[in-house]
Write a structure and sequence with these properties.
The chain has 492 residues and is mainly α. Helices cover 67% and strands 2% of the residues.
Length: 492
């Protein structure tokens, strides 16, 4: 009983620190007041949630330490999945409150915008042409931090024995350094360095500094929020499109693979199976999409290729930036974008979707199965794939886990598409496109997601975004843990 009490106190202490962190993150957009005039109600809209969260967090930490003075030793965190679930739900609520308090959105719409921000999806119900710089920064900053994840950001300040369990539970699988603390610092250093370089590149290309910062944050996090209603298409600049493509590809690449590239280990980087598979998909999908657009939508082949180049990379990287609308696109081109959104980016990156490695493993498993059917039964062979850390065997356990995930992913996709058709009163193609965008945390929309979208449809998309960002099994395990705890409490 004493151990249980200490575990609860430790969890409460950690939750209190997380609440303080959320309050501080919510207060960061107030810094824009130093550069832009404050709009009525903005100070209260951000200051009240930030202040309440910080004070509540301090109170929770104080109470935990009063109950158990021995808490400030290495924390024994129980049920990592349930804590990660709490962290995301609490963070989403805090992120939504400024929109509600300022009267910008109703509660469901505010939750949707917050979920879309923290999960780096990029779907929006906000008219950005009528939004102040403080709220534009708030949206971009949510995506920038969401790319790393709440636990990863928290690990910058609080590291203990169980931190690795929390980081794994949030979906971060690769360790770049011998210990977690160095890994987190290294990832954040890479992330911040690319942010500075991206902001500088955008500024040199003709964007103002504020737009450059927001677009760099959202491209690296593969988020897709923009300060312009027309997204990147507003600028009509091939150079800005190219910079965005580079940042999107950086964001969708495994951090461990990026480290090889930064260290100049080009051969090892190019040997990674996920990188090769990414190149193969782009080499096939971009010309095919360009050809379809040239035949059915646009008159010039170079223009069709430029549009296909940007849109396919945006969809595959799950970034969600766009240069054109899709109302005039042929359904074959729309189908190709849906396929790219379902595949998604790299494992261990900021991207969503099924992930390149899982799709690659499924194809390799299919190939090995067909090959074994055509060879003598006595033949024994082993397959490998290359990760940034080296060659890894493709065993039965890995294929089973991958197959279960892919099957579950498509069940959710089909169910979500059906529910979106019912709640948004849209066509099959429209529902398939927007729910693929939500589940893959992409952010592209064919037109059914916006300020006029019904609340039930927004809830369906929010569920898809959370399942896509937190990885399905992790989120379901956290929900199961919470359910079992509630059931045990009721039965007592």
């Amino acid at each position: 009983m004493k151990k249980i009490k200490k575990a609860i106190s430790c969890n409460a202490d950690l939750a209190g620190k997380f609440m303080i962190l959320c309050g501080l993150l919510c207060a960061v957009p107030l810094l824009t007041g130093l550069f832009f005039p404050l709009q009525p109600g903005e100070l209260e809209a951000f200051g009240i949630p930030a202040g309440v969260s910080i004070l509540a967090g301090l109170g929770v930490c104080w109470k935990a330490r009063v109950q158990d003075p021995d808490v400030p030793r290495p924390l024994q965190i129980q049920k990592s999945g349930s804590f990660v679930l709490f962290a995301w739900l609490y963070g989403i609520l805090i992120g939504a409150l400024p929109f509600v308090l300022a009267g910008r959105l109703n509660f469901i719409q505010a939750l949707f915008e917050s979920v879309s921000g923290w999960t780096t999806t990029g779907l929006s119900v906000l008219d950005v042409s009528e939004v102040s710089p403080m709220f534009l920064f708030h949206r971009g900053f949510m995506q920038y931090c969401g790319g790393l994840g709440f636990v990863m950001v928290m690990t910058l300040f609080v590291v203990n024995r169980q931190s690795m369990n929390l980081v794994l539970a949030e979906g971060h699988s690769d360790q770049l350094a011998p210990n977690l603390s160095r890994t987190v610092r290294l990832i954040c250093l890479m992330y911040t360095t690319f942010l500075v370089l991206g902001t500088a590149a955008y500024t040199l290309a003709g964007m103002n500094v504020f737009d450059s910062l927001i677009h760099a944050m959202c491209a690296l996090s593969t988020g897709g929020f923009s300060t312009r209603a027309q997204s990147i298409g507003y600028y009509q600049s091939p150079l800005i499109e190219f910079i965005t493509v580079v940042l999107m590809l950086i964001g969708t690449t495994n951090f461990a693979a990026l480290l090889l590239l930064i260290r100049g280990q080009i051969r090892k980087f190019l040997a990674v199976s996920e990188i090769r598979f990414l190149g193969l998909i782009l080499a096939a999908a971009i010309p095919l999409t360009a050809l379809v657009l040239f035949c059915a939508a646009y008159t010039g082949l170079p223009g069709s290729f430029r549009i296909a180049f940007f849109e396919v990379i945006s969809a595959l990287s799950t970034s969600g930036f766009s240069t054109v609308g899709y109302a005039d696109w042929p359904q074959a081109a729309v189908f190709l974008l849906i396929l790219m959104m379902l595949i998604g980016g790299g494992i261990g990156s900021t991207a969503g979707g099924l992930k390149l490695t899982r799709v690659y493993l499924m194809l390799r498993g299919l190939g090995d199965h067909l090959r074994r059917r055509g060879t003598p039964r006595q033949t024994v062979s082993c397959s490998f794939y290359t990760r940034p850390q080296g060659k890894t065997i493709i065993d039965q356990k890995l294929l089973e886990g991958t197959s279960c995930f892919v099957f579950c992913y498509f069940l959710i996709y089909l169910g979500g598409t059906f529910l979106l058709m019912l709640t948004a009163n849209c066509t099959l193609i429209e529902a398939m496109f927007d729910f693929a965008s939500a589940l893959g945390t992409v952010g592209l929309s064919i037109g059914i997601t916006g300020p006029a979208t019904p609340a039930l449809a927004l809830i369906v998309e929010m569920a898809g975004m959370l399942l896509g960002r937190l990885e399905i099994f992790i989120l379901l395990a956290g929900i199961r843990t919470v359910f079992l705890r509630l059931k045990a409490a009721i039965c007592r």
